[in-house]
Amino acid sequence: MTATDPTTTGRDAPAKDHWIAVSAVAFGTFLLVTAEQLPIGLLTPVGSALSVSEGAAGLMVTVPSIVAAVAAPVVPVLVGRMNRRLLLVALMGLMTLANLASALAPDYPLLIISRVLVGVAIGGFWAIAGGLAVRLVRAAHVPRATAIIFGGVGAANVFGVPLGTVIGGLASWRIAFGALSALALVVLVALLAVLPPLAAARPVALRRLGDQLRDRGVRVGIVATFLIVTGHFTAYTFIGPVLRDLSGIDERFVGPLLFGFGVAGMVGNFAAGAAVAKRLHRTVLAITAALGVTVLLYPVAGLTAAGGVTLLVVWGLVYGGVSTSLQTWMIKAAPQAVEEASALWVAVFNLSIGLGALAGGTVVDALPLQGILWLAGILVLGAGAAVWSVRRDESLR
């Protein structure tokens, strides 16, 4: 089953495949996630340089996530009928300037302001790029193109964030942000060179955003996204202590293991892209069930190094398919309003990242470490129940 019906996309359906453009958009998603998460590895040097605590420096991650959640639906509404090619280029220009401002920020308040701009660029770009596959390739290739676009997310976790952290350690955190700015400029030029014209078929309106929630398939996709992503980040935010204290793994091996998690996630992303092309509902249900069971098994079967490593790899493999499969779900659920549905999905996805980390922090302070794994597993299985409820919906098969 394809991700969308060519008869429902009207003049947006391309006559030929634009794979180079798909690759350029994937390069953009790689940059977005790298920019969003890079400060995780730079909290100490930034805090020391600007005389703030590591907790305060952590707002460099929290702020753009929250802003991105707001920007995802707002940016498409504000730009109206603006050509989406020009919009993506403009947002990448904003990312270039924002990271340059981060690199040059003389104090903490200006640094946070620059991170607000990063959040606007992330939310706006992702809202458009997430559903762009239907406009760049023919219908039969949409799942594969979606997987490539979201492959940039896994690549950022595997290569982008670690490499940026190394640059920050060897040179300075300002050089790391400067490198991000230079990379954004490269992406900008690539998008300008290879993206075809992407005229907006109609402006996105707040009313139409709300209208999407009347569709049962869209509602289930939003609920599933909220529960899965919140559950994942509830536990994954504290994966270091989980590996160390529950599985007995030495601290020095945590970094390499997280690299392995990212590699497994990239494999899972492309495997999911192939699977959703044939069986969308079954694939999403399988991913949700497998993720919930894996997290719930961790407090029982992850109490040794071997068990912990095995479950971590499975976790990465399964979670790697979440973005591709859920974005495809939204495309299938709203084939005539892909941009609106994608904007809602990106908003919920980014909001869930912050809420998951917040929930995990609250639970880990009140309960034993296993508590975050139990909570995460229950949330994800709740998403599975929501997905199961629409098993008879032909449009999602």
TrEMBL record:
Residues covered by the Major facilitator superfamily (MFS) profile domain: 21-394
UniProt keyword list: Cell membrane, Membrane, Transmembrane, Transmembrane helix
Gene3D superfamilies found in the cross-reference section: MFS general substrate transporter like domains (1.20.1250.20)
Compartment list: Cell membrane
Main localisation: membrane
Pfam families listed in its UniProt record: MFS_1
Stretches that traverse the bilayer: 18-35, 55-79, 86-106, 112-134, 146-169, 175-199, 220-239, 259-277, 284-306, 312-331, 343-360, 372-390
Membrane topology: Multi-pass membrane protein
Xref: CDD domains: MFS_NepI_like
Protein name: MFS transporter
Protein species of origin: Nonomuraea antimicrobica
